[in-house]
Each structure stands twice: as C-alpha cells, then as structure tokens.
Amino acid sequence: MSPKWLGKCPDCGEWNTLAEEKKETRQGRKSSGRSEPQPLNTIVSGKEKRTTTGIKEFDRVLGGGVVAGSVILVGGDPGIGKSTVLIQALSGLSKKYESVLYVSGEESPEQIKLRAERLSVDSGKILLLAETSLENIIDTASKLKPGAIVIDSIQTMYTEEILSAPGSVSQVRECAARLMFFAKKSAIPVFLVGHVTKEGAIAGPRVLEHIVDTVLYFEGDRGHSYRILRTVKNRFGSTNEIGVFEMTDSGLSEIENPSELFLSERPLNVSGSTVVASMEGTRPLMVEIQALASPTTFGMPRRTSIGVDFNRVNLLTAVLEKKAGLHLGGMDIFINVVGGLKIIEPAIDLGIIMTIASSLKDIPIDPKIFMFGEVGLSGEIRAVAYAEQRIKEAAKIGFKKALMSRTNSERLTAVEPFGLEIMGAGNVEEALESIGI
Q: What is the rounded distance in angstroms from the CA atom of residue 317 to the CA atom of residue 329?
C-alpha cells in the first residue's frame, strides 16, 4: 500500500509494478453461523475421507488421496506439466463420481480437448467450462455438484466485488478465499493452478499458500524428461514427499522405482562420482552426485552447484581443506546432482565431500559403495535418521557396502538380512581412509 505513485516497488525492487486500486466501501461478510467453544476431549475425531486418483505418485504426495473439501495449490514453471497431471487426475476421479469440473481461464474447450486426446483421456464425465468470473463458476459448481474442481489458473479469475484487474493481489486473494469457503461448505475438493515468478515462487501474495490445505510444486527443467512433484505443505499428510514422473508424448507417466532410474546411466570406475542415500519424506532415494575439481584459470576459483545448496558446498569445501589437508584454494569445483533432483537434506554431506576428494585425487570410488552422513565444521560425521530404510533401499538395487557415521553403524539392528558390509567413520579423515582416498 502506498498513498502516492512510486516508480519502484520498495518491497520487491521491481519497476512499474504498483497498480492503482480504488478503495471500496461495502458491508463485511455475513457470518455463516456462530460456534460455541468445546472441551478438546469431547470432540470426536474421524479419519478424513480420501479418494484415490489412480495415479500412485500423485496420491503419494497428497498423503494417500484427495481429501473431501480440501484446497490444493499446484505451482510450477510454464509447460512443466501442471495442467497435464491435473487432467489425468480428473480422469481417474471421474470413474468414482458422476462428474468432475475443469474450469479454464486461459484455454478454450477445443484446446483442452486436443490435449485430452493426446493423453488418451476420453470421459463424458469431465465437464469443461471456459470462464473467468468467480460468481459464475461457483454458481455452476453449486448446481452441478461435481466430485472435484480444477481452476486453471487462479491468476485469471476475478470477482465482481473487487474493481482491480484479474491477477492483482486483491483479486487473487479474494478469489482463493471464496473458493476455499465453497470447498469447505460443499466438501468438494478444489485444485488451483498457480503461476510462478522468475524466482520460482507462486506469483501473487504469499497468502495463497496459507489459505490452501496442500501446496505442490513441480520441479525439473526442459532439458530433462523427469518431473518431480514435491509437497511443500500438507495439512492431511507428510510434507516433503515427492512423486517422480517422466514426460512422454502421451502425458506424465509415473516412475515407481526412481532410484533405479536415477542410477541407470551411472558411469562406473570413474573419479568424481558417488551414490548417496537421501530421504524425501518417507521415501528413500539413491541418487548420484558428481564433482569436478580442476585448477582455476582465473584469480578467484569458481564454485558451482546444481541440485544442492551453494553455501553448503562452500562450507564442506572449507572443512575438507582444513581437516583433511587437501589444497582446494586454487581449484574450480563443480557439483551436480544427476537427474535434475534438488536435495536439501544434510545427510548427503558425506557424499559431497567424498566426491570432491575423489575428483581432486583422480581416484575412483568403488561403485558398490553408497554413503550418507552429516558433516560438522570440526570434520566429525554425525548420525542421521532412517538409516535402516536407506540401507534396505540400497540392498534392493545391489549395493554391497555402506559408509556412514560410527554412531549410525553402532545403532543398526537389522543389517544382517540385507547382506551389506557396514563401515563406520567418526570424522572425514577416517572416511577417506576407509575408501582408499
């Protein structure tokens, strides 16, 4: 809010982004009914009703299925697959309801029909509505009572109660709030497609993420056919769950065993490559981390990371140089997580350090070894959670050795059935010695 015109927004720093909105004088919303306070132990809690879409990876990120009356926000870059996965999900939901409603404010019904034919989706129960007026959408949905509603996208919708243009802060906030009230009152799940900014955040006010029950983000880039659907917020399930898909000519196909997929083209017996066991929600993932350390040709060595936090890589590089005696001050270091996956878990610290050391000394790491562990500033290797789940996933793929913190190795109780050799290390120097670097 600004009382006068400003060329540059003081919050985001962008130019010519302030929009004029007239102050409206209207009566506040009428209360839908007064509720009385109740003792917590007298409230009966029932398990929420879930409906599966038939897409296992999509149901996984939702916590097992679509909850009646929930509001789900799906964000991602243009063309990454938001509309594709939602129309596929509606196809599955249409088999369990009399009708489902797809509301498009950007495409015509003919365009959506062409996409549906490409995806082999042909259901007379999927109703298409090309509309941007929120009042007309809610009125139509109240009459049809569909099993689920998709709004594509929330930035194109407007309500007549607000005078500003569609996509403005007030319009997006008001439309999302009205749709949330409708979903809770009618017990109809509503999917909202949200545009993203250049930084990858949902366009418009952050209040969108606070209003909805679940926030899903599509990750990936145009150079890879793989798409990661990540749960950022979920009031009805675990957060940080991921679903893995592959973009094909016939739409998004789910990948049930992503660990094998990410390691399918892994080079063997080469330096600067190792496999780490990461946890994404409740799912263990085996991913390959690659590193390249080469003498710099500039005055300042470069540090580049893809898929891992840049500051974390700098921290681990300093630990490796200080505690292990490796000279990295004149080396360019590049880190990449294969497959376009983004990992924020500290359990991959040990893998990053071992990969950098392997590339620097040009010594390959045994391809049958995988590792996990958090590295502290004094070079110690700390224990991480879910060690047995990580080991079980690695044993299924065929790994024979596991490198981890000594604390984790001492706590393990179910290693014998997996047939793995467990190697524990207390610090970075011991870890390097154990794999011969």
A: 9
149 φ, ψ to 5°? -130, 135
Residue 38, domain member (yes or no): no
Q: How many CA atoms lie within 13 A of 224 on its CB side?
A: 17
Burial of 435 (0-12, 13-18, 19+ CB in 10 A): buried
Q: Which residue segment(s) compose the domain that 324 sits in?
A: 261-434
Residue 302, domain member (yes or no): yes
Q: What is the pLDDT of residue 26?
A: 47
- Determine the average pLDDT of the residues in 55-59: 93
pLDDT tens digits, residue range 18-50? 666 655 544 445 455 567 888 988 877 666 788
Gap between the Cα atoms of 53 and 89, Å rounded: 5
Tokens representing residue 397 in the block: 């793929």
Structure confidence at residue 198 (pLDDT): 60
Exposure class string for 314-352: b at 16+ Cβ within 10 A, else e: ebbbebbeebbebebeebbbbbbbbbbbebebbbbbbbb
Q: Tokens standing for 77?
A: 């870059």
For position 249, what pLDDT does the model report?
A: 83
Q: Residue 5: inside a domain, yes or no? A: no
Comparison of pLDDT for 218 and 196, the residue scoring more: 218
Dihedral, 68, 71, 75, 78 alpha carbons, nearest 10: 80
Residues in a beta bridge with 242? 230
Which of 304, 262, 314, 305 has its CA nearest to residue 283?
262
**In whole angstroms, what separates CA 436 from the centre of its chain?**
36
